[in-house]
Design brief:
- This protein has 384 residues and is an all-alpha fold.
- The chain has a domain of 152 residues.
- Helices cover 58% and strands 2% of the residues.
- The protein is built from 21 helices and 4 strands.
- Helix 4 runs parallel beside helix 6 and helix 5 packs parallel to helix 8.
- InterPro entries: MTERF, MTERF_sf.
């Protein structure tokens, strides 16, 4: 997960004889000084600027987004460029990488080489260049390299494919900065939970690897929160097999919910659909989104369907439509309306499914609408 650093400059104030002096005029973008935090900062490193220009890097873009990099005394432009060139990156790719992640030039070349060797364990150079170009911040995050290495080794021993581990490195780099023992403990809890819920030893590895591939963010949760969520679901009357079913359908995102949020969603759904605990369980098993989405989201989606002419009874019969955003629902209803379909007279199943499934179903309805009511080739029957 990537963090956004929001920098706010403080107002410039210089008091003299009780008067406020205006801030200095803005300097041209090529000037060597930058006005920040109410004072003149250090001069830009002209050597850094010149070398970046040599590689056709847009200096103005760096000044606008991360100008502090240009103020650093120690930078390694040529060294970082050389490492990228060794991997096979061309000038265009290098320029794009340094513009998007200029802090790369303040990383130690030794640390970047270590990072390169680490990532090469799970992907080839050609693929590595593509990943660095797409996720430069993840690659040049060179802290905790010993943790990163141990975690890569652990995930490989666990049986995760290299392509999955490389995806983790780019999209969820924070799990590699966890102490490896933390990740091992979380995996152990997941394995024990699976067996305690009735899963078989033979299927456990496949289940675990699929769960991690779908949702690596689980590794950011504490083992205590995982246990708490499972115990809460059992208290709500879900059987072990039903909980396993929910975990598979929600791809492990269930662990990222707190019991209080789940309880609120359950209470809201029970009130809206006016059903018993048993009936609600069946609705949740058909549509786990009733557990996952917070009350405001569920309320918005139900209200959106009602405004389009649907009824609570229709939603209860086909709760999976609540997995769709109001915008998607409106778009699909307009398309169906163009064929004469009216939501209040029909079944919500026509709205359901992925984009591909909906378009395929819409095509069938459209073809059926355009079909003649009689065969124009066959002769008409007449009374003799």
């Amino acid at each position: 997960m990537f963090s956004l650093v929001l920098m706010r400059s403080q107002p410039y104030r210089l008091c003299s004889l009780g008067k406020m002096l205006p801030p200095p005029k803005r300097t041209p973008c090529l000037a060597g000084f930058i006005y920040t935090a109410g004072r003149w900062s250090n001069k830009e490193n002209s050597r850094t600027v010149e070398k970046l220009c040599t590689f056709s890097v847009d200096i103005r873009k760096i000044r606008r987004l991360k100008g502090w990099v240009l103020l650093e005394d120690d930078t390694y432009v040529e060294e970082i460029v050389h490492i990228l060139q060794e991997l096979g990156a061309d000038d265009t790719a290098i320029g794009s990488i340094l513009e998007r992640c200029p802090e790369a030039i303040v990383c130690s070349p030794a640390a970047v080489n270590t990072q390169k060797e680490l990532w090469q364990l799970v992907c080839k150079n050609e693929e590595l260049v593509k990943l660095i170009k797409q996720f430069p911040d993840s690659f040049f995050n060179v802290k905790d390299q010993e943790n990163q290495k141990l975690n890569v080794q652990f995930f490989r021993e666990l049986g995760l494919r290299n392509v999955v581990i490389s995806r983790f490195l780019t999209t969820v780099p924070s799990i590699f900065h966890n102490p490896v023992e933390n990740n091992k403990q979380t995996i152990k809890i997941l394995q024990e939970s699976y067996l305690n819920l009735g899963g078989s030893e033979a299927n456990m590895k496949v289940w675990l690897l699929k769960l991690l591939s779908q949702n690596p963010f689980m590794l950011l949760d504490s083992s205590a929160s995982i246990k708490e969520t499972l115990e809460f679901l059992q208290e709500q009357g879900f059987t072990n097999s039903e909980i396993l079913q929910l975990l598979s359908k929600l791809k492990g995102f269930l662990f990222q919910l707190c019991p209080r949020s789940i309880h609120n969603s359950i209470s809201f759904s029970k009130s809206v659909f006016k059903c018993t605990d048993h009936d609600l369980k069946q609705l949740v098993l058909k549509c786990p989104a009733l557990l996952y989405y917070p009350v405001p989201v569920l309320e918005e989606r139900i209200q959106g369907l009602l405004k389009e002419g649907s009824s609570v009874a229709q939603i209860r019969e086909m709760p999976m439509v609540l997995e769709l955003t109001p915008q998607i629902v409106q778009y699909r209803i307009r398309k169906l309306n163009s064929l004469g379909f009216r939501i209040k007279d029909g079944h919500l199943a026509n709205l359901n499914g992925t984009k591909k499934e909906f378009e395929a179903n819409f095509g069938k309805i459209q073809a059926k609408k355009g079909r003649p009511i009689f065969n124009p080739v066959a002769p008409l029957k007449a009374d003799e």
